[in-house]
Every structure is written in structure tokens, then in C-alpha cells.
Amino acid sequence: MNSLEEKMVTAVPDLRDFPLDRLAELGGTPLAHSIALYRERLKENGVPLSSFNARI
Amino acid sequence: MNNGVAELNFHRLPETAFTALAAGRGDPAVIRLLQGAQQSKHTMLLHAIAEAAGDGDPADPGTVAFRAGYQLLTRMQATHPDASTWLLGLPHIGGWAHDGLIRLDQGLAPDFAYLICAVAAAAVRAGVPFELDAPVRDGHVLLPGLGRLAAGGEATWARLRYDGKHLAAGDGVMAPEVVLGPDYGSGQPVPHWRGTPAVRVLADGLAWDVLLVTDDPYLDRYTLPMSAGLSDHDLRRWRQLAQAAWEVLVRHHRWAAEPIATGVSVIVPLTPQSETDLISATSPAAFGAVATSCPPDPVIMAETLVHEFQHVKLCGLLDMVPLAESGAEQVYAPWRQDPRPAGGLLQGIYAHLGIVRFWQSQRQAETDPDHVLRAHVQFARWRAAAEDAVDTLLRTGCLTPEGVRFTSMLRAQEMALGDEPVPGPALQIAREVALDHRLTWQIRHLATDATAVSELAVAYRRGEQPSRQQDRPGVWVQEDVRKLGTSVRSRLLSMSYLEPARYRELCADGVLPLSGADRLLLGRDAEAAVRGYCDLITGSADPQPDAWVGLALALHRLPASALQDAFAAHLPVLFDLHSRLGAGHDPLDVAGWFG
């Protein structure tokens, strides 16, 4: 059981306030790693589109 | 910054948010956490595309446009941060960036030029002047999230100029700022400008503002095409439905309405293959967009929004916290006609938790007896379906530790709904429709061990005892191993609670293409239906898979028996065994022997 105060570190780098023209500075760092991980997930899982026919 | 190297932090998800999402909920504050992560994800993908643009042909017009857009966006990020936040949160941009990454991985160039259109839209919204070249598609420059401006002529590029008051494309095609926004259906047509259709709905003080997008290539990404070129009449219908559905949500499902108002910014109207289909879909690439064909009534639209928004939330969470591996095993999902990868089952379960909760409340809101019946059956059917699917998912072992924790919390929510009483007739319909769906799926997609079935047939002919339980023919999922369409009987069973009035009308007409046994089943003469199906199967030289399902349903209406259990548990084996024996054998004798 996790404490409700805990915060989970997620797989998404927080780029909200990061200047776009300085993203290149992160090129060889965890940002590249995060992009590679995302690419890997896409290759593994494809694009899991949900599609539902309510008349089944 | 640390020694000249930028530091990178990661989004953090509070346990309270994780717990709220696992309970199928999540208030607007939780939704904003998901939106923040999506903004970062889109920035991350934009960066990957920018790197590719940097390596591209510097003279290519698309690359040039991308660079110009990126520079303008960078400036706006500093001077008008709300504008860049708006752009990076657009589902359109999510779809574009996602597809761009896929194209890069395929060795293809992304659609670089689209960025300039989105940046121009953000700049117009923020009142930031610009002058740049934008691509022209079908005679228009698309401004995602706002509308489109006629470009005049047949050129593929147009000079787009915005001075803070007027937007012009090429020479002489201009629209004033006052109209440069979505079209809420209240104004007069404006020359050269077509605002993206939108609707602003309000109920009990809670508003929802949503675009109806039918012209953006990066939101045309669902199993059905978007409904391009909606007429004014169609748009009026969508707006009326949205308003009425919003009233249903706000008054009876406030837990869902508030987060939907925060998290759904786009509806993509879809074109169904037939008028009776209701198809809805969500894509993890376009967070904040839901797609649906036009629902038949406001309650169903409200249910569809709840359903699809569950997918939206889970897609957002899955980007942050992996909950399931891809899960190669194919399994039965009670809401699908086809086998599904185990890893994808979580999406369906999560969506149906929302559906169950919707109908739980809607049962109290309805007054018309037909609508009350529909609500009870929907509640009972999907409650049982979600419970079964959770068991399947946990059995497959495809969940990560966080996924097991999430699913266990989800199951606790379902257990809490398990005690809610359902009137007997509604429960009976729910169970029958669920059984029909499951057995039809099994006949379609469960293969049997042919050698073991042949040995059983030999034993039956010799009058020997059947093999021991543990030696019985193995079964495995194999898509479309037998051909079986959706029967008229199945459609009628669904119609009996989805559209009871129409169901009564059709049954009274007596003109439907049903077998005699089907008529007896629908007429609630189960014993005669059993005999009818047996005669049909015994007397036919060809396999009759639909009659086997009908026979199982007819038995299900009779008091509990070993035969009933055998049909419910082993239908594909019984069907294949009987096919091996050939015509002339009574299916009840075969099933009784197999027992």
C-alpha cells in the first residue's frame, strides 16, 4: 500500500517550461532516452486504437 | 542548468491521482496533470521531428516552413506562453507528432509543413503578427483548432500574413480578426473564412466548449472516416445532441461531466457503415479527442462520452506509467467480436467501469419503462462482463506491478457494484445477450484439436465412454476458424432492450428472416425451441453453427441441467464433434454423452 502523499516518478520528462530553442542541449541526455523508450513502446504495442461498436 | 548541461526532471504522479484514476474517476485537477504530461510528450516528439528537420534538405519548402514555425513558436513560448501551451495541448498536434515519429522510423519524411499551420493558429489566437508561407490543401490554409482560410487559386503554398487584426492568404483573400475563431453556429457566413464547427453547452452552471473537427488529416485516424463536409442540418443535430447529452451528464453524472469539460476538447464525427451502427473510438495519439458516429439520442451520447473519456484518461496514464506489456496472448473481450491481445484488455475494462457506473445512475434517472429496462440491462450486462474480463486479465500475467495494483483497485470498484440489485427480467436479458455474444465468439474463434475430436467421434460411434476430463480436446484462439455472421436473432435479442418498441413492432410483423426455432426462442417457448434447433441440426447435411448457439440459448432458458452446462462450457468441441459424426445425430444425445 503506497502512502497517499507519495509521488510516482513517471516516464515523461517535464518539458513544459523548457525553452524550445534549448531542447537540443538535452540531445544526449535522458530526453533522447525518453524518445527512444517511446519509440520502442510504439514498436512493441503498435497504436492501440480503441474502437467500440455499441450495437454488439 | 548544471555545468552548462540542462537538467531534466520527470513528471510526477501523486498517489492520490493514481488511486482516483484506478477508481475510474479523476477530478479536473487530475485531468490537468495528465494534460501537462501530454504537453511534455508532444514537446518531446516535436523535438524529435525538429532534429530530423535539421538534417533535412534546407531548400525543401516543408522544412523551411517547419523551421519558421518552430522559431515563431519559440518566440511565443517566451512572450505568450498560453499560446504555446494551447498549441502543444491540441489533440491535432498529438496526432501529427505521433505520425511524424512513425514516418521517421519508417525512413520517410514527416509532414513538416503542418507545424506552420498550427503555429499560425496559435499566433492568431494570441494576436501575434506574422508573415510566413503556409501549405494550401484543397484551396484552403488550415489553421488547426480555429478554422480554414480560402487561399484563392490553385497554388500549393500561400503567403500568410497576420497584422494582429486581419489574416490574409496570398493576394486579396482576407478575413477580419473578429471572425477568426471556431464557428458556434450563431453567426452569418463570412467570405473566405470557415471556422471549425464548435459547440458551447451549458447546464446547471457547468459549461463545456468542444470542437467538431471534420477536416484535419491528423484527427482522421479512426477505424471509420471522419464525416467530412457536415451540412448545416447535420451540425445543428450535433449541437442539439451535445447540449441534451450535457444536461444528462451534468444532472445525473456530475462525477464524469466536470472532468470531461476539462479533458475533451474535440469530437470527431465519424461516418458509420450503416445507419444502425454506433461506433466510437479514441486514439492515444490524440489526447483530448473522442470520435463517434452520431448517437441516436442524448442518453447514448452521454454514455459514449463517458466511455471514450475513460479511454482518454487511461491513455494519458499509460504514457506516464506503463501498466501492461503488449501481451501476445489473444483473449475474449466481451465487448468485441474479434480476439484481443491481453495487454489491450485493460482499456476495455476501464471503459466499461465507466459505462457500468453511468448506467448505475441512469437507472434512477429514467422514467419511461423501456428506458428503465435498457438502463438495467446495460448495467447488469457490462458489470458482469467487466468482472469476467478483470479475471482474464489478471490470469494472463501481462500486467506490470503497477498494472496489477491499478487493476486490483479497479476490481474493488467493480466488487462494490456487484451487490446492486437488478430486476429479474432485466437480469435474464443481460445474461442471455452476454451468453449469445460469448458463444458466438467461441464458435468463430476457438479452434479444437482435430485429432482428439476424431478420437471422440470414434468412441461415440462404438458406444464407449468419452475420454476423461483432462484428456478432452484442447482449444485455442484462432481468428475466424469458423464462419459465422451476426444473426438476425442476435440483433433482435439486443434490440429487445436497446429499442424495445422497435423490437415489439418487428416481432408483431412476423416478416423477419428467422428460423422456426428462432421464432420459438424469441416467443419464449424454450422447450419447443430446443426441439426446433435439434431438428434443424439433425436434419441438415451442412454444419449449422448459428443453430448450435440458438440451442445453447434455448437450454439456458430451461431449469439448470448438465446439458445446459455442457453447451455453455464446450460448445466449439460439441459442434466439431457433431460435424465429424455427420447428419442424423441428435445434438442433445452427443452433448449428453460428452457431458
Q: What spatial order of strands do you see in the largest sheet of chain B?
A: 9-10-11-13-12
Q: What fraction of the residues of chain A are assigned to beta strands by DSSP?
A: 15-25%
**What oligomeric state do the depicted chains represent?**
heterodimer
Q: Tally the beta strands of chain B.
A: 17
Number of helices of chain B: 21
Largest sheet of chain B: 5 strands, mixed
- Total helical elements of chain A: 1
Estimate what percentage of residues of chain B fall within beta strands.
Answer: 5-15%
Mean pLDDT of chain A: 78
Please compute the radius of gyration of chain B using only Cα atoms. 28 Å
Mean pLDDT of chain B: 93
> How does the helix and strand content of chain A classify structurally?
alpha+beta
Low-confidence stretches of chain A: none
Task: Characterise the protein shown here.
- The complex is a heterodimer of chains A (about 55) and B (about 600).
- With about 55 residues, chain A is α+β, with helices and mostly antiparallel strands.
- Chain A has one helix at about 30-45, and strands spanning about 5-15, 50-55.
- Chain B has four domains: about 20-180, no CATH class; about 195-320, no CATH class; about 330-420; about 435-595, no CATH class.
- Chain B has helices at about 15-20, 30-55, 60-80, 80-90, 90-105, 115-125, 230-250, 255-265, 300-320, 345-365, 370-395, 400-415, 425-445, 450-460, 490-500, 500-510, 515-520, 525-540, 545-555, 560-580, 585-595, and strands spanning about 10-15, 130-135, 140-145, 145-150, 155-160, 165-170, 175, 195, 200-205, 205-210, 265-270, 280, 290-295, 330, 340, 445-450, 475.
- The radius of gyration of chain B is 28 Å and the shape is elongated.
- Classes of the chains: A alpha+beta (about 55), B alpha+beta (about 600).
- The interface between A and B is large, with 47 and 76 residues.
- Strand 1 of chain A pairs antiparallel with strand 1 (about 10-15) of chain B.
